[in-house]
Amino acid sequence: MKQKEILSNIPFNNQDEDHDVFSYETPLRPDAFEKDDDLKIELIEKHFKEIMHILGMDLSDDSLKGTPRRVAKMYVKEVFSGLNPASKPVTKLFDNKYNYDQMLVEKNITFYSHCEHHFVPIFGKAHVAYFSSGKVIGLSKINRIVQYFSKRPQVQERLTVQIAEELKKALKTEDVAVVMDAKHMCVSSRGVNDTNSQTGTANFSGKFNDPAIRAEFLNYINSSTVM
Ligand SMILES: [Zn+2]
């Protein structure tokens, strides 16, 4: 049932998973973390140097010689650090002492990701809402969950579902909504060179399947005031 709900929002391609025909997991090999970060940086540096060399660049130039290592470190330690489950944020829940039972919205969460088809940036805003199950989460943890899944080679559809699923788990509720608006550099800076188009994705579960509640959330995120 849960899977069906997700699929009603966003369709997915079949992926090679043990049981589920459909999966929102990032496709990773079982040996993905057998190499440690230092070794990964060393290997990527070597290969990136080769790419630059093939392109004809003079790697003895002062400005270029540090680039392979910089790129390798950036990949492993920054922009793709969310591949490693070790960087997953630890979420702590608090009692909802004030019995706040309305929708909580956190909007305009800035995120930077990379398109897995071209390895160029996807960036934009995520908007998240939930109803408390009796527990609440520190607000900055919502941002951290968004950042964690963004720091992977991604497609926006999967990123949206991964954030929604993690929030449901963390918040122990199905009543979660995620909307993402993003610019894809692979669309704006190359290919069709469309600098204006923006891509929107959404994942609604639980109470957010109610059109009135969904409308209330969308109204919040489209208004210029905070709530
Ligand atoms: Zn792309």
Instruction: Determine the CATH superfamily of the largest domain.
Output: GTP cyclohydrolase I, C-terminal domain/NADPH-dependent 7-cyano-7-deazaguanine reductase, N-terminal domain
Shape: elongated
Content of β-strand:
15-25%
Task: Output the radius of gyration.
Answer: 20 Å
- Let me know the number of strands: 7
pLDDT below 50 for ≥5 consecutive residues: which ranges? 1-19
| Element pattern in H and E | HHHEEEEHEHEHEH
| CATH level-two architecture of the largest domain | 2-Layer Sandwich
What is the top-level CATH class of the largest domain?
Answer: Alpha Beta
Distance between the termini: 32 Å
Please describe the biggest sheet, giving its number of strands, its sense, and whether it closes into a barrel.
5 strands, mixed
Bound molecules: zinc ion
Q: What's the rounded overall pLDDT mean?
A: 90
CATH topology of the largest domain: GTP Cyclohydrolase I, domain 2
Class by helix and strand content?
Answer: alpha+beta
Strand order of the largest sheet: 5-2-3-6-7
Count of the domains: 2
Instruction: Assign a percent range to the helix content.
Output: 25-40%
Tally of contiguous helical segments: 7
**Which oligomerization state do the chains in this entry correspond to?**
single chain
